[in-house]
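Q: Now give one record:
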Amino acid sequence: MEIVLDQSRIEAIMLAGVRIVAFLVIAPPFSYRGIPARVKAMLAVGLALAVSPTVEAGYRTGGTGQYFGALVLELVVGAALGFLVLVVFSAIQSAGSLIDLFGGFSLAQGFDPQSMVNGAQFTRLFQLTALTLLFTSDGYQLIIGGLVRTFDALPLGGGLDLAEPAEALTGAVTGLFLAAVQIAGPLIVVLFLADVGLGLLTRVAPALNAFALGFPLKIFITLSLGGVVFIALPRVVSILADNAAQLLMGVG
């Protein structure tokens, strides 16, 4: 019995797997460390086999040096695409950080080794909620679909035009700050008005020492109105998942 192995197809699948692994290590929600590495590896192999008919069509085998160069290139491409998705979803974490800062929770920061997030209560709460919503709302499928379509825009070993990822990254960072302010903006305005009211009260009656009530009052307002922001997170995550998928498909 003679088994013939298609070297070109095997190399194409391995290169696709390298790009997918680099993407899954960085891009949320797959970057969450609570997901076992074995599961990520199995997912990468399955996706590489699924895209093999697409990637092997335009791939041409070469020498050993050329192949290792293509491996490094695919590693860079996967990491760059994963970083773009990470920047998009960092808007939710940034919104939580703004709420912690203006609400007085930033004094109790902690590090979450699973999600690699250093922040206070709302930062970690928003991050975990976003990861949960990505899985429960099938938002992760949009991200995987965008990753699969990158093999059409960026063929294996075809090189990477740094101008397009840089332009996409600039737009993603701009959108990050804008989305963070939009998510946490209403609550931040209320907390700012509370500070203004306490300042006016101190000017009118200095003996009351109104700023002594500042921390408990702002914490009470944050906990009371934080649920309003929390309710809006499902729609925010859905919009960010669409933006991430479009961003992946636009690089190429």
